[in-house]
Structure formats: structure tokens, C-alpha cells
Amino acid sequence: MDTRSKQHIALISVHGDPAVEIGKEEAGGQNVYVRQVGEALAAQGWHVDMFTRKASTQQPSIVEHAPRCRTIRLTAGPEAFVPRQEIFEYCGEFLEELLKFQQQAGFEYSLVHSNYWLSASVGMEWKQRQSIKQVHVYHSLGAVKYQSVDNIPAIANTRLAIEKKVLETSERTVATSPQEREHLRSLVSTIGNVDIIPCGTDIRRFGAIDNIEARQKLGIEADEKVIFYVGRFDPRKGIETLVRAVGSSQLRGKSKLKLIIGGGSRPGESDGIERVRIEGIIAELGMSEFTIFPGRIGDDLLPTYYAAADVCVVPSHYEPFGLVAIEAMASGTPVVASDVGGLQFTVVPEQTGLLVPPKDDAAFAKAIDRILSNPDWRNQLGYWARTRVENQFSWDGVAHQLGELYSKLLEKPAKTLAQSGA
Ligand code: UDP
Predict the structure, then answer these.
(1) Residue 420 has pLDDT above 60, yes or no
(2) 336: part of which helix (H) or strand (E)?
(3) Which domain holds residue 134?
(4) pLDDT in tens, 330-342
(5) Which atom of ligand 1 approaches the CA of 325 most closely?
(6) Could you give the number of structural domains in the chain?
(7) Is 323 in the pocket of ligand 1 (CB under 6 A)?
(8) pLDDT exceeds 50 at position 236
(9) What does each C-alpha distance from 274 to 59, 196, 237, 243, 263 come to in angstroms?
(10) Which terminus has fewer CB within 10 Å in the chain: N or C?
(11) Residue 355 lies in a domain
(12) Is the pLDDT of residue 162 over 60?
């Protein structure tokens, strides 16, 4: 019998709800990853429950996504939005609710796949209470992140300790790029098992519409030069670098320039603060005339925006993987990205886009200009970008690798803390 049928697995994403609209209220890559992995694994035959924290009284407690795949929202702390740096104190309550849910359901999960350090702590505590296998994906690594931020938060030591312990005690850590594995080994611990399985994207959805049709749909003229950003509004995303690059003399003189900055919630709400700051810089540099903020871009229009762009820019200070880069590439759009983290894995310089030092406005301006000034080369880069994603980053391929990993782990007895040497 296929090991995956009837096996119940739990994906935990305490702060990244897989069932919410992506692009606002801190919802980004982790939410997309969990939802896509969950659905793809369910399609393979696994019974997948994705656990997250209930962040509003309006939200249903259970959302069915597909046969054998649902999101379960647990009450832990207030049923209201809580910024991720304040969620740790509710993780104990989260586990208690999860165990209650499991008891009422009348079956036991055989494997927990935790996402981000908050969920890692829930998964590790669960392992203490029940024989269950744990697979962990970091999504962001404190040891790297704290190198690029000015204010280290009070929770940092707790996070770093949990990130070390989960590497050493889980059955398997999944790094999403060779760069992440290197960081784990050099900055976190040499103990523990690490596999590399990248994040993926939907190669049918991204790439389904071409540049001409996309521009017609969005009302963009054929000769406009479109520079596109999409993602959360978080200072770490480096949107300011992009804005200053586009506002620099290198690009400013170009005719028919259009800067589209997608994503973000309403002013005053979590990432709305960064959006207001960015809008202020745009106004100060006199760029309002050619800059558009479409707000959150939903699933229906996102492939159209990517396809309409001449270049997609990912100016993050630190990026563990960066789904936006592979979504753009899948859409045949070259990427100019910071030379950091997972972007060094996904973007191949001079082949699928360009990599430049983070926070370097002038370098971004030069790289964007090179692509905008050479339409034939731009199309060639776009072609190779699409090919790279088809070969390496399709969701089907990624979920297949994860499913194989789960099956292999479930054939073995669970690792205890003593065995892990921790
Ligand atoms: N996203 C979206 N609409 C928006 C803004 C973002 O669908 O308006 C999605 C984007 O397509 C990507 C994810 O949010 O799938 C962001 O993931 P990424 O890994 O690039 O960044 P993270 O949010 O994890 O830092």
C-alpha cells in the first residue's frame, strides 16, 4: 500500500495563514508556500491539515481547500491581528489547542512540517508529547537576518536558540537553496540533517499570458518601459533602493518610464506604515506622475502584471528564497535582484537577469537600464528565465520531492532528543 494514503500530516504555520489573501497584513511567501505545498501533497494522497492562529473573529475556524486539504485556525491569544514578533507567547496555547483538536478528530498525525521558528517551537514541544516526525523549513533565518538590521529585537535570543535546536533535533531540515544550507552550517549548527528542496511556483498560471495581451489588459502602451515590484511593504524588502534607483539620473531621463509597486495594505495597517514612507519618498523625488501603487494584487491579475513588465526588481536586503523572483521568471520576465540568499540560487546573472549588491541604488539603476535599453536581450533573458523555472522550480516537482522525503522518514522510527545529541 502507498504509505501516503491515510497518513495524516500537519503543516504548522502559526503566523502565516495559508487561507488568507496574500499581499497584505504581513501575508507573503510563507502563506503561499504552505498553501501550495498542502494542496500539492493532498493531491498526492496525503491527508493534510494546515494549522494557523486565528487572527479575527470573522474568520471561519476551518477552511476546506481541496479533498484531504484544509486550514484549521486555532484560538491562541486574541482573535485579532498580532505582529509576528509578538506571537511567541501564544505558542504554548497554540499547541494545547492543536492537541485538543487531534484528540477530538480521533486520529494521530504522523508527521509535522513546521514553518518559521514560531512553528518550530510548537513542533518540538509536540515531539516531546507524542511520537511524531518533524520536518522544518525556516523561511527566514535569524542568524542571517540580524546581520542586516539595525535594531535587534528583544526576542532575538529566544529565536536563535529555537532555530539551533530545531536543526539539531528534527528528523529533517529542508533548506530551500544551497545558500541557506551553507548559512545553517556556518551560522547555526553542524549537527542535524539538511536536505535542499526549493520553493516552487505554478508554471501553468505564470506564463499563461504574453506581454502584448497583458499590456492591453492593464492599459499600458507598447512602448512604455515598465519596472515592476510586488511584495510585502517591509523595510527589509528594500523598496526604497528601487525608488532611489529609478529616481536617479541614470533612469530618470528615459521616456515613457512606468514604475509599478504592488502589494501592501491600507495606510496605518501593519505594512501600511512602510507604504506611507515609500509614498513620501516618491513625492519628495517628484516621481508621482509615473509611479503606480495598485495595492494588493490578487491571483487573477498577478500573472498579467508580471507579463506586462519589462523587468521585475527584487531589492531585498535579505531574502531566504524569494518567490517573486521565480514567479516573474516563470512569466518570461527577467529579474534584477539583490545578490543575497536564495536570489543567488534562482537568478542566474547574465542569463535570467542580473544580481547587484543590496542597498546600492546606483548599481540597481545601471542593471535596470541595461535591460530596458536592450529589448532583444531582455527577451532572451526572459526566455531563459522561463526555462530555468520549468526545469527547477515547478510546484509539482517540489511537492514530489517533499512527498518522497516524508515517505522515507515515515519508514524509520522517530528521533528522540537523546539520539539527536542535543
Ligand atoms: N503577493 C501577492 N500579491 C501581492 C503581494 C505579494 O500575491 O500584492 C505574493 C507574491 O506573489 C509572492 C508572495 O506574496 O508569492 C511573496 O513571497 P516572497 O517569497 O517573494 O516574499 P516574502 O513575503 O516571503 O518575504
Answers:
(1) no
(2) strand 335-338
(3) 5-200+395-420
(4) 999 999 999 999 9
(5) 20
(6) 2
(7) yes
(8) yes
(9) 26, 33, 10, 13, 11
(10) N
(11) yes
(12) yes
Q: How confident is the model at residue 273 (pLDDT cuts 50, 70, 90)?
A: confident
- Ligand 1 mean position, distance from CA 223 (Å): 27
H helix and E strand count, the chain: 17, 14
Q: pLDDT per residue over 354-380, tens digit each?
A: 999 999 999 999 999 999 999 999 999
Residues 318 and 250 in one domain: yes
Residue 96: partners with Cβ closer than 8 Å, 6 or more residues away: none
Residues 171 and 219 in one domain: no
Substitution candidate for ligand 1 out of 36, 145, 319, 324 with most atoms within 8 A of CB: 324
Residue 205 lies in a domain: no
- Helix or strand holding residue 326 (H, E): helix 323-330
Among 171, 54, 150, 160, which Cα is nearest to 117's? 160
Is residue 96 situated within a structural domain?
yes
Q: Are residues 187 and 249 in the same domain?
A: no
Report whether pLDDT(344) > 70.
yes
The band of 396, judged by pLDDT with boundaries at 50, 70 and 90, is confident
One domain for residues 185 and 279: no
Mean pLDDT of 306-313: 98
Answer for the pair 136, 114: CB distance below 8 angstroms, yes or no. Answer: yes
CATH code, domain carrying 12: 3.40.50.2000
Q: Cα separation of 116 and 53, whole Å?
A: 14
